[in-house]
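[step 3/7] fold_predict: job queued, chain A
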Amino acid sequence: MTLEEKIMADFKDAMKTKDQMRTQTISFLRSQMKYCAIEKRTEKLDDADVIGVIKKLVKQRQESIAQFEKGGRQDLVDKEKKELEILKGYLPQEMSAQELEKIVRAVMAETQASSLKDMGRVMKEVLVRTGGRCDNKMVSDLVKSSLAGPA
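[step 4/7] structure written:
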């Protein structure tokens, strides 16, 4: 079962059980997936594309939570956190920092990266190898510190 099929099945289940929060969140996710499919001119998205859409929505929720906390809107913070949990349920298990560090070191050795100029090349390869199983900001910070520090 593809991730897209699982999301559709969960949407139907949420509608049957009248789980309004889950229904709304998955409905919005489905519409974003549809936009992505239209943009890519394809009928079905592969799991990597779906994960990309979900990560984008997760990032939006995290930014919204920060803004609502600054504004003192606890009701909206709670709503965004519930949506965030629903969306995170579709992402693959994240890698540990140790696993990620090993991959970064291996890629740096293979590409012979030595300075921050090589960051783009290293980032691209690390993201391919992690397959969406880690936070891009965490990867970026780790690559940057590895390239800036003593080699």
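[step 5/7] annotate
The chain is about 75% helix and 0% strand.
The two ends are 44 Å apart (CA to CA).
exit 0
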